[in-house]
Amino acid sequence: MADLYSDHHRWLRAWLYRRLNCPHDAADLAQDTFVRAMGSSALPVIEEPRAFLATVARRLLSNLFRRRALEQAYLEELGRLPEHCMPSAEDVLLVREALAQIDRLLDGLPARARHAFILHRLEGLTQPAIAERLGVSLASVERDLRRAFLHCLSEPSE
Amino acid sequence: MSRLPIDRVTREAIDWLLKLERAPAGSPMQSAFDCWLRRCPTHQLAWQRVNAVMAAPLADLQQAEQRTPGQLALASRSLRELPTTSRRKVLGGGLAMLLVGLGSAGIAHRRTPLDDLLADLHTGTGERRAFTLADGSRLRLNARSAVDLRFNASQRLVVLRAGELQVDVTPEPGRPFIVATAQGQVQALGTRFSVRQDEGDSLVAVQQHSVLLITGNAAALRVEEGQAFRFDGLRSEAVAPSLRTRAGWAEGRVDVRDEPLGELIEALRPYRAGLLRVSPQAARIRVYGSFPLDDTERTLLSLSETLPIRVDSLGSWLTRIDVI
């Protein structure tokens, strides 16, 4: 296990650096990758350690990019607010965390079901209102919302 | 990481939640639901489980909403703007690189608008560059700027697509040097001037000798050294000297002479990747001094030490400036 770290740590950092272009992010993500990899049950039988590490790192990378894209979207929205509507710094953090949690929860849900569920839960829109907004039938909205509930409830707690 | 199976009772609870919501008040469906709920403790548990979906982040959003209305709608828009992904496909590997690509394109957007990547010369956030053009003229680009070069036998045309430039023109009889913005054209008559593309209008400032400004149908206007004009495609008007007309950025600083803080912050924006918010009260505070552009962190710190303002940062992505 210590070998995995000492043999491949530098390589992984370089691999991540090429994708992130930031030495600090690369170092952080390399660390996270080893933590995940060492906690993995697949570990004792790794034949291709670098391919395995790259798989783990790739997943962390896509999570990171996803989270950044979400924060960027939120940032753009904040930027459009007039000054008196700006939330406090504490609330910005609170909302940012909540957004990340919701996005993780909805990960993998098809786009229409995702939109319907967000309108339903966050904006409190009724099913007919969602149907109108998305231009689909009421039955489709009901199906989408049911699917979203099932999706969230079947989320394995990691 | 495989998903958990959902039992029948939980499915029933979801159906109830969706049905009840559509039922009018006092509908018989309400009593039918009450019966279902009371029939068995597992029903109650299932009902709680379904109602607890997303409850924790929603409660946080509602708290923020109470303090500043509009947060829920804003959160909803942010979430709906993102493309959907499937984690399982990502794990498969094939989509991973595609996703990474999409992600970085989304992030890169604020830092370098995609259109400008196609420009002949461009700079990103916090990046200032100097170029020697084919005719020997020197072109400086401020941060987040882009130009296209269209040089031919009869003219030297520089199209400013975004941001700000300054040129030191090498005279060449018979081949005028022209900087074009969305609102007009500036033709060099002498050596040094700067042009800035803003939203909806442009600004020309002459640091040495003079230029000819052409905007809309108005007659060409000669702008002399030390003068500056704003033009919008219809007309132009003289503007007083300010940190914008001094083009201090070309030397990596911004020179402020008793001007509002808001103007100084505008000049710092292209040098910061995150969002910079300044309250209207803070924006009105008068500032005097010369500030480095390449270390905006230090500039903000020194401002907060000398002015009655507070600077809060949330990581690198949001900085807020307000009066104390």
Query: Using DSSP, what is the number of strands of chain B?
Result: 18
Radius of gyration of chain A: 20 Å
Q: Which chains have the largest interface?
A: A-B, 66 and 70 residues
CA-based shape of chain A = extended
Low-confidence stretches of chain A: none
InterPro entries (chain B): FecR (IPR006860), FecR_N (IPR032623), Ferrdict_sens_TM (IPR012373)
Domain FecR protein (chain B): 120-211
Protein name (chain B): Iron dicitrate transport regulator FecR
GO molecular function, one term (chain B): sigma factor antagonist activity
Can you walk me through this structure?
The complex is a heterodimer of chains A (158) and B (324). Chain A is mostly helical. In chain A, 75% of the residues lie in helices and 0% in strands. The two termini of chain A are 23 Å apart. The model of chain A has no long low-confidence stretch (mean pLDDT 86). Chain B is an alpha+beta fold. Chain B has three domains: 8-80, no CATH class; 118-245, Jelly Rolls; 252-323, Phage tail protein beta-alpha-beta fold, CATH 3.55.50.30. In chain B, 35% of the residues lie in helices and 30% in strands. Chain B contains eleven helices and 18 strands. The longest helix of chain B has 18 residues, at 94-111. Chain B starts with 7 loop residues before the first helix and ends with a strand. The chains are: A mainly alpha (158), B alpha+beta (324). Chains A and B meet through helix 3, helix 4, helix 5 and helix 7 of A and helix 1, helix 4, helix 5, helix 6 and helix 7 of B.
